[in-house]
Amino acid sequence: MDRYSVSRTKRLLFYIIMTFLTVGFIVAECVLPSERSTSTSDENITYDGSFTWLKADGESEAVEVPGRYDVKPGDTMTISTVLPKDFDASVMAIRASLQTVRFYVDGSLRAEYDTKDTRPFGKDSASRYVFCDMSENDAGKEVRIELKSSSANYSGVVNTIYCGDKSDIWANIFQKNSRETVIAFFILFAAIVAILFSIALSIVYKTHFDMEYVGWCMLLGAVWMLGESKLRQMLVPNASVMAAMCFIVILVAPIAISIYIDNVQGGRYRKIYACVETLSFVNFLTCMLLQLTGVCDFIGTLPAGQVMLAVCCIVVISTFIIDIIKKRAAAYGLEMFATVVALVLMLIEEASVYFVVTISGFFIGTGLVVILFINIIVTIKRISEIEYKRQNAESEKLRDQAERVSMQMMKTLATTIEAKDEYTKGHSYRVAEYSALIAKQLGWSENEVQNLRNAAFLHDIGKIGVPDTILNKPTKLSDEEYEIIKSHTIMGADILKDITIVSNLTDIARYHHERYDGKGYPDGLKGEEIPFHARIISVADSYDAMKSRRIYRNSLPDEIIRDEIVKNKGTQFDPQIADIFIELMDKNAVVIEDNNFMQEEGDNADIELEAGKFISDVVSTISMQESSDSIDYLTGLPMRSRGQKLIAERMNEMNGCLAFIDMDNLKKVNDIHGHKAGDRALKLIGNILTEKEHSDMTACRLGGDEFLIFLPYSDRTYIEQIIEQLFDKFAKGQDDDCEIRDASLSVGMCMTAKGDIFEDDYAKADKALYYVKQNKKGTYAFFHQLKITSKVSSGMGVDLKKIAGSLKESGSYTGALDLNYRDFAKIFEFMNNLGERHKHNCYLVMVTMETLPEQFMDIEVMEQALDYMEQSIRQKIRKVDVCTRYSSVQFLIILFESLENQIPKVMERIFMQYYKLYNKNDFRPKYEYIKMIDDR
């Protein structure tokens, strides 16, 4: 999210207001009269009396104060004055310039300034203001002031003499000199911040910044300014030390400047600057030695330091000129400009020593502010460049790492998803290794082989988007399901499209199911149109598919696999690649190592391993959740998809029996006693099938009232005993719950052999169940025992008579007409009584749905046909006729006041409508009828 910023108009208005206030303040201060007290003005605090110079030879001379006179260094200059009669000042003061000062009033020593006992070294006292206490009693008395300096520059200097109140004098001094002192403190603070900030940046960014050396130069300049400040005696307890630091700064300054400029210029002139630094250091040591030994004070050796500083400036300017000529100055143009300004101002500051008695440090302060401002800009630009490079490098590193981790995660995801199915576990890894074997035979480099291996590992990543119910379906896929399976190539390419660390990823994911003859998917590419890498994966993928055991078959032997590859060479497979793989098979060279891709080395190995573990945990958690979600909460049995998969796996491992169980009359139980009663009936079956004694069987709920179980036994007699026990336990449960007594169980079974195709045996068990439901509900039958010729015809008439009898015995009812079975019984009784009384002819018709011999039908297809039959009956019978569904394959119809010879026509209309709706010929209806009222 972008940071909020006020509007440009609002900012412009704010700038105008602030500019107006600033300019207005400056103008007002300059134009309007001063409000300062007049007592602090120069006229009010300056002594205006006359002075006489009392020379050592006894002569005297009138002198002007302030002024400078010819006095030899080391000699004392004495000046005297007689105070006026109206004198009432509390103090007199003079600024000593490297001088010893003594005040005598009426011949008596009143004040003395001499630092011989407090200064660390040197002959002269530091410059400062010297105050002498006075009073009105001193009016008319003589005042003598003795000034002594051993420096030729300051011997004979007489500064302004003040008189008045001490606070007024200090106020005047502060008004004149505070600006430079404040600037000096600002520069000192900025220097410390610059040095610390540069050191911190150096630690963070592992490099040195020029601003650090600027900070040291600023620190020296700030010390110079504070040392030259007229307020220094108020700033530090020992002004002599501060004064000495002013000279030391000049001696050390060339070293700091050389280091800074050498760093700015990138070391091009480091030998020249090394000479400057060496000479400056030798000069510094020499001057210090002369000062400490008392041979010569700093003021005496100052010219040597100034010469070195001038030499340094000349060298810097010379290198600047050389770089400008060679067009190398653009790289540090701002620093060069700031340095030239600072050097010029610094030279002006030095030269002022010889023209004015006291200097303020203003010029050097201005120069340092300029160079600081410029270096802040330069440092910010450099940090920006460093950050830009660092972020680019970090982005590259993160992108590379992200792609590596993403690839590792996808590898782990692909492996984890495959691990959920016993038959596809390790498929991607094996395909990758088989592809690598082909690539090596082609003479590819190790990097090319590894790239192909990585890409091949992810060739089926698109199956993440295919539902498990389709991937693991043990029965034949529908056309719609097969289209979903085929879409995994497009989804895989879409998932991998942003991965650039491995080339050819998207081509392999999208085109590995293309055929050489152009009949593959998804794009129907042909021959050389198919990317070469994808053609390699196609052969490796097909080999592993044939070599691996599947839920519906065992693995194929190498001989058959070889024949398949040979047979499909040039149609499904690239002939060149097929020949190479056949050659590998003939040499028994199709051998791969165990899957150990998680042990890859690299900088990101730990991250990739953790990412792999994370994805594995996530997928495992999802898998566990899916497993819990695939359990039927009512019966506690696995639901259809998971149950069929478990049963198919067991069928592939052992012989046994597949049993299809259907609960009869569940709808009737629900209609009469409510769905809770039906739920109890279903739960009863679930409890029976999950008992410990049946722990070796595998059972699931297919949906509604249907169940599927696998019994791992080959003895048919034993299986019949288990089914009989199942019936007995269900009957016992019915005895305890009267509301579910109308329910019963019908079972169709098929004996299976190890490795049988699940879909075929499932259809046979379904057929056996259908046979039971057509002939005798509540029993069981094996598919191999079925006798198609005696399915229904032999018992149809008997069944109809029994039904009619049970309807008659169901009791007398009154109420509204409905179409469920119980209400059908009411209607039957009502019509039977009505026909008996009024001699109406009523007929009860039973419609039975039959399959063709050896025709196996899925339950869903049967239900569709039965729905069409129910619609046909409802559409073609009269409004006075009544119908209901009697069983899963039978319907009952009451034809009221119908002629017997019209019944075939009525049924023909119904059957014709049925064939219009259901345009297949695999599920045919038959009918029979009886008269409801016997002729007496």
Descriptive report:
The longest helix has 58 residues, at 362-419. With 936 residues, the protein is α+β, with helices and mostly antiparallel strands. The chain has 29 helices and 20 strands. α3 (166-205) runs antiparallel to α4, α10 (362-419) packs across α20 (605-629) and α22 (666-673) packs across α23. Residues 597-604, 787-795 and 810-818 have low confidence and may be disordered. 54% of the residues lie in helices and 13% in strands.
Q: Beta-strand level of the residues, as a percent range? A: 5-15%
Count of helical stretches: 29
The largest β sheet comes out as:
6 strands, antiparallel
Widest β-sheet, arrangement of strands: 2-1-4-9-6-7
The share of residues in helices is: 40-55%
> Mean of residue pLDDT?
82
Alpha carbon gyration radius:
56 Å
Write the layout of secondary structure elements.
Blueprint: H1 8-31, H2 42-45, E1 51-54, E2 60-63, E3 67-68, E4 76-82, E5 91-96, E6 100-105, E7 108-113, E8 128-133, E9 142-148, E10 157-158, E11 161-164, H3 166-205, H4 210-228, H5 232-235, H6 239-264, H7 270-293, H8 298-325, H9 333-351, H10 362-419, H11 427-441, H12 446-457, H13 468-471, H14 479-486, H15 488-496, H16 505-511, H17 532-547, H18 558-567, H19 575-586, H20 605-629, H21 640-651, E12 656-664, H22 666-673, H23 675-689, E13 698-703, E14 706-711, H24 716-736, E15 744-752, H25 758-775, E16 780-782, H26 796-808, H27 821-838, E17 842-851, H28 859-876, E18 882-887, E19 890-896, H29 903-917, E20 923-931
Parallel strand pairs: 15-16
Antiparallel strand pairs: 1-2, 1-4, 3-10, 4-9, 5-8, 5-11, 6-7, 6-9, 12-14, 12-15, 13-14, 17-19, 17-20, 18-19
